[in-house]
């Protein structure tokens, strides 16, 4: 809405008639836009918007399935005659309501009673900074306002931290009192400056970023660090803030701060996706993840400068949404079949070696032999690949080891018919991913393992064992985007906490989030 309730309450017919034509035209455009938006909101229901059916009254649901214009006056009279007359309900007398007394015999006032236990904030922290907020222009005539003629109408305090440095080590809490003013214009309009509130991201519709917050951007960044980087629960974060900073925060405030931080960082997701798609080499891996009772997967996409996470089902949908149909870079992955449609794909040899070692320790002789030959071939090829990186050979490694590869291919064809389950599975996997496995022989500069992605997952796998995953879809989105920011900044050798504080601050003010910091030393 362009005009607030305060603006509309000060406008009447006489004011509109006395406004100059040019100002009246300007105001009419605002009124027209607000009227259209109000009508659209009024017509929203569960059939034409995202509103749930439970938000509608029973009679509203019924009216949506019937055309009210078809009811004639006769039908209405018939409905009235069918209704049974009910005895009139006696309404309680107003004096009876006000005559209720408390234990002392005095009339009881509505609302919270004197001496009742409260739930508000009780800790008082000394104010260290003051910040005033004034409206700049009149909402009616758009003329500049005189800030000397002002009146404070509301205020709140925001607790934050000052960043430590070499000259001033340690953490120091600050408490800024924000005062918002109203200013009267010469045209009679009273203009009010309100704390900015950013619209929620499409992914997190119920979470907004607002300037009216007790927790400042720097303190919010510290809470994110304690929760995810240090793997503390909400209760342990509350304990740390109380013991070390002398700050009392409720578990609910800590939880809401995490969710607001995630909502503030959501626009960064588009930048992460663009850099992933433009990368020349990408490592992808996934591990199991629980969202309350729903079994999902935590995906990681890692490049030279970006590490991004998503929580989703184990299907091709997420891969297609991020990489599209024609990703041209080198894709390092495991044997999951959803990766097979990308031509420039290479396989992780560590997975295959572990499976071959398992066959080598098998009690089946054929399986032992197959495992030994697999390990021997891959060991020999790995040595050749490492030497080729420093001293490129005159011919391609595929030609140099052509006979060994042909012999091993025939062995895999034979082992594909084995009755031993693990032997058959490894032989089938080698044949299905033959080109992806041995493509590194033609391009020795490519990695042999997917350790880059597996190392990126390791810290969060430990957190999963502690927290047992997430509880809601919102919590999964918040978790994924925040750890993506943390790991990406770490990979670029930049502090994620200073950057995250700037992101939260910008989103609260309605400003675009800053770009991800560049790699340290590349300025």
Task: Summarize the topology.
Elements (H helix, E strand, L loop, with lengths): L4 H5 L3 H6 L2 H22 L15 H7 L8 H10 L11 H5 L30 E5 L16 E13 L9 E13 L5 E3 L4 E2 L10 E2 L6 H13 L4 H12 L5 H15 L2 H11 L2 E11 L2 E9 L4 E6 L3 H8 L6 E4 L11 E3 L1 H12 L4 H26 L6 H4 L1 H14 L5 H12 L1 H5 L12 H17 L5 H19 L4 H14 L14
Helix pairs in contact: 7-9, 7-20, 9-19, 9-20, 12-13, 12-16, 13-15, 15-16, 19-20
The major beta sheet can be summarized as: 5 strands, mixed
Percent of sequence in beta strands? 5-15%
Distance between the termini: 43 Å
The main sheet orders its strands as: 9-8-7-10-11
What spatial form do the alpha-carbon principal axes imply?
elongated
Q: What structural class is derived from the secondary structure elements?
A: alpha/beta
Low-confidence runs = 65-86, 89-99
Computed over alpha carbons, the radius of gyration is 33 Å
Number of helices: 20
Mean pLDDT comes to 85
| Number of separate strands | 11
Q: Helical proportion?
A: 40-55%
